[in-house]
Amino acid sequence: MATQTAPNPTREKMLKGLGYQKSGEIEKAQRCYKQVLKKLPNNPDALHLLGVTYRQLGYPKRAIEYIQKAIAVNPNQAPFYANLARAMMDVGTDAESMLAVSEKALSLNPQEKEALNIRGIALTRLKRTEEAEEIFQQLLVTYPDFGDAYRNYGLLLRESEDFKKALAFFHRAVQLNPDNPENYIERSRCRLKQKDFKVAEAELADALERFPDNAELKHETARLLFSISRTDVGVKYAEEAVADNPKNYHRLVTLAVQYLMLGRGRESVDTFLKAKKLAPEGAAGIDWNLSLAYLSIGDLTNGWALHDARFGDENSTSNKRKFDVPEWGGEDISGKTVLAWCDQGLGDALRGCTMLHELIERAGKVILEVAPKSVPWFQRSFPKATVRAAQVNSDLTTDLNDFDITANLVDIAKFFRPDFQSFRNARTPAFSFDIELARTFFERLKGKADKPIVGIGWRSRNLEVYRARYYLSAPEFFPIIDMEDVTFVNLQYLSALKEIKFFEAKSKGAFVNFEEVDLFDDLEAAAALTACCDVVVSANVSVTEISGVLDVPTIRFGPQESALLLGQKNVPWHPSTTYLRMDENKLAVDMVPTIRQTLEEHLSTFDPSRRNKRLQLETVAG
What is the pTM of this model? Predict the structure, then answer.
């Protein structure tokens, strides 16, 4: 007679829950495990699996609670520790703790797949690259279809900046687990690191079709669109990502920078402040961007106070130099030698030096360090200072010790430009120029001097996609200057020969190019030539900074620039500059009629006396 096995309701309920869990019906699985725990509250398997379901539903803290209860009942199960480590990773637990828990799992079962995976992730975060790589290689040999291992190996390679190899692993992760949106997200982040924007845009569009409600994909799309200066489109995705999780500070930061670029400064400030409350202490980038947001609404006090936070932002191009002497904090420096330096390019150095006369008045002596090409022009403009090429070692230190205190040219704004009245009181023009050289250029314009002389620039040398949309090509720019009785002088540095030939052919003699002048490296010549102009029309590049510090009337077009505009319609740094701000949902070429009209308005009241006074031609004639 056959023996009849007694029914085991608990086991059946657990198996039923597992079936639901494997098929993705997580809530049904939870009900099964809860029913088991109602009768057997200390059942370790039910506690563990209920914890896993909470992690799958996006509640990692609750997952940790139940898995820890399971471990308390049965501390000898490797999967318990492996899933605990995974939940810890989800809540952002430090890598050392994750490593300890994963190693406990591996002490119980050296082949526990998930524990190996988490150990590799923890080692990656701890910068123990070789150990992490060995773990992932071991995983892929043992479990060649384990998609998570491919993705995490890709993360390791991306961290090591081996982007090409990382992409191969992300592709494989997508192939193995096409239903896991995380694989698409990490691949996109790798594309962004490579600045492979076109491919990233296509891949993200495909991913969004597959997962239209995935908020992290929307967030990643917003980040991509910001990178290519398409915030007019990206803001929608950023808002949807924040609506899904208003307490995710990364998403709030992404939304805040979108608002900033769209000129929605108050909303940007409010959103950054929310992010700052939620972010861990010292989270990089928030204070720097918050500084720009404050400046964008004209809040100079808060904006300047946070402005040096750029040195702590990994995405900033600023590097803080290291000195053995203190940084100036606004105290009396009448007997001190001050080293003034700048961490950015020519444009920032020019704006910063509009405050240098005031620093010179306060200090015993000022040493100004700038790029080598800037030394002659800056020395001419600031004869009371000692101007020299920046003396910086590879580790951002200096071997010189001929100064008592340092002052960053950008950050002294908190002392010299605390309000808009201080801008109005500033010395104008801030810079000088070689007047004899300028007159030489002017003489070569003989026969044209009775007409307006307009200097022109149309682009930067940097034509990456995120910047190029704010510039014009030569053919796009030409309708602005297609007018009679005006002389146009080339101020475009590093212009291409074909651009020059285009203007010469189309303008019928009205366009003049001083071909021997190196407008990029010879700043003395560039300034002298700019001084010959009645008006300068240019994209938002250093051409307009040169004309600005020389107080030459300027029409400047470009995007929202917080530290330049400071919440004002025009540029407080340069009173003679008219700024034409682009709408983010339009291209630079759409602004051509407005730029042309603004130039016509300037020329309608043409009077050469301002230019002649600048060149001291009236004095010569007298």
Answer: 0.86
